[in-house]
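In response to reviewer comment 3 from the previous cycle, which asked for concrete evidence that the modeling workflow produces usable outputs, we include below a single protein chain processed end to end. The sequence was submitted unchanged, and the resulting structure tokens are shown without manual editing.
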Amino acid sequence: MKVILWNLRKSLLELFPTSKYRLILISLILIAAFISVSELLVAKLFTQIILNEDELAKSTLFLLIGGFFIFYGFTRAGQFAQRIYRLRVFDKAFKATDAELSMAKDNWRWSLAFELTHISSTLTQMGVVLAFFLYINWIFALINLVMIIIVLEVIGRLFKKQIEAQRGFVEAKKNKTPVANVIRVGTRIKSGEIGILLSGIAMIFMLGALFYFNYIGDISASNTVVLFFGLRMQNSNLSGISTGLMRFARARTHSE
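The workflow returned the following structure tokens.
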């Protein structure tokens, strides 16, 4: 896991050498994290409406439904604006640097920046979602934290090996040594898919824990639904980190 954080930090300092653009980028990452929690709040509001529909007055019900759609719309619009604005940040940050790069190196620099922001945003989202879990049930959240650490530790080891493999491919290209596509592409895909498989196993384990806590009455029905959505989001995030890190390794080694 340390190798993931070290490479992310190093790439951040290299791609965005000025503190101005680093702060802007960090702000965009935090906005993405807020949006992820907002989606869980939307899910909680939705379950409250559905589960208590018969007990609510019509005026209150319509008000909650209207609030649900408005809140959901804001989260979608915020996500769209965040992703579009980062393009302008990349462009201005790269133009502010004095480095002269070839067309190929510049393309890899853009790819690296996209993977950097994607992985950093996803990790931040997971941290905020974990805090949300902690608010609902601290024991469940701690079990979930252990599972996340285990999965990220294994993904980190795969990522380290992928960097070494990609550097080998770059060296082979310089030496004009042909490398079969099944090896060059397959190595990256296989590593990413192993991470996705581990994430799926962790998801199954946590769903079992969620059923258990709901059965013994430690987690209410509405919170169980929200935690289910949160676990699905977490599984998607871990899968995205796994494949994103393998692309990150390729972009990093080719942009060096």
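The chain has a mean pLDDT of 84. We consider this sufficient to address the reviewer's concern, and the full set will be provided in the supplementary archive.
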